[in-house]
Known about the structure:
Elements: H1 26-48, H2 72-77, E1 93-98, H3 105-115, E2 119-120, E3 124-125, E4 136-139, H4 144-156, E5 164-165, H5 174-177, E6 182-186
Parallel strand pairs: 1-2, 1-3, 1-6, 4-5
Antiparallel strand pairs: 4-6
Amino acid sequence: MSMQEPNRPPRQRPAGAGAPARPATPIVAVIVAAVAGLLGLLILRNVKNDPGDSGFTDNTEEITDSTDVTDDSLVDSVPDSTVTPVLVRTGAAVVVSNASGKKGAAGALTEELKARGYETGKAFTANSGTLYDTTQVLAAPGDATALAVAKTVLLEMGLTGEPGILDESAPVKQSDVGTATVLVLLGLDRAGQSLLPLGGDSATATTEVAIEASLTTPGN
C-alpha cells in the first residue's frame, strides 16, 4: 500500500482582504491635466468674446496722432502772410486837388505821379475855404480799375485805409475833375512830401484787379 500525501486544504485569505492595489499610471495623470488645461482655455476665450460681460475692463490704449506740427511739409503748406503789393498805375486818370492851403503842393504831387507812370490831369485848388488835415483818395464807384489805381496811390503816399467814393459830395467842381476817376484831396499831412521811394516800404496792401503796371523810375 503506497503512501500518499494527504490532501491539503487551500489556504484561506483573511476576511476583508481585497485584491492588491495597483499604482496610478503616470500617463493617466498627464491626460487629466491636459484636458483640464484645454477646458480652461475654452472658458477664458468665451468670456473675452462675450460683449455683454462687464467683468472685464478694456485696457486697449487709444492710438493718437503724434504728427509733429513743426514738420517741414506742414510749414510749407501755410500761406505766406507777406504779400508783394501789385501796383496799378494805368487805366484810370488821377487829379490832385490842393486842400492843404500850401501853394504849389498839388502841382508837385501831380508831377511825381506822372513820373511814375500815372495818367494825370491838371492840378487845381479845392473849393474856397476847404482845408483838410488828412489826405483823402477817392475813386469812382463801381469802377474796379479806378479802385485799384486809388489803392496804389494810397500805398505810394504811405497812407492806410481804403479809398473813399468820388461823388458829388467831394468839395470840388466837376469841371475841374473832368473825366478823371481818381481824386486826391491833398491835406496838410502830405502836402509838400514826396512819394515813398520805389520798393522802400513793405506795405501789405494789395489791389483787387491785376492790370499791367508801369514801373517807370521817377525823373529828376
